[in-house]
Amino acid sequence: MSKHAKLLNHLSAGNEVTAKQIEGYFGLKSPSRAINYLREQGHCVYANKATLSDGSQTTKYRIGKPSKRMVALANAVLGAQAFSY
Questions:
Q1: Which terminus, N or C, of the chain has the lesser number of Cβ atoms within 10 Å?
Q2: pLDDT tens-digit profile of 8-37?
Q3: pLDDT at 85 over 70
Q4: What pLDDT does residue 43 have?
């Protein structure tokens, strides 16, 4: 199983991950590229700002369901082709 597939399975199970966790647990050197790759594959990956227990700021990534606003924006930008397979 590829590193990206392991990350996707982890996120699909309802877990959140930070960039450091993507590097450490999954061995992906560029967390932002890994997240963009998943998005390019059609997965809805959200990035949420969070404060860790030590007070530092980070971004946590999670899989989610696209909001109505997101679907409307995709339709406005790409038209019906955004929803064709």
A1: C
A2: 999 999 999 999 999 999 999 999 999 999
A3: no
A4: 92
C-alpha span between 63 and 66 (Å, rounded): 9
Counting Cα atoms < 13 Å in the Cβ hemisphere of 8 gives 15
Strand partners, 45: 63
The two three-digit tokens of residue 15, written as one number: 């877990």
Q: Is the Cα dihedral 60, 16, 21, 40 positive or negative?
A: negative
DSSP secondary structure letter of residue 63: E
What backbone torsions phi and psi does residue 67 show, to the nearest 5 degrees? -75, 165
Residue type, position 3, single letter: K
46, 71, 72, 74 from 82: Cα distances, Å: 19, 9, 10, 6
Confidence (pTM): 0.81
As given in the structure block, the two tokens for residue 52 are 């860790």
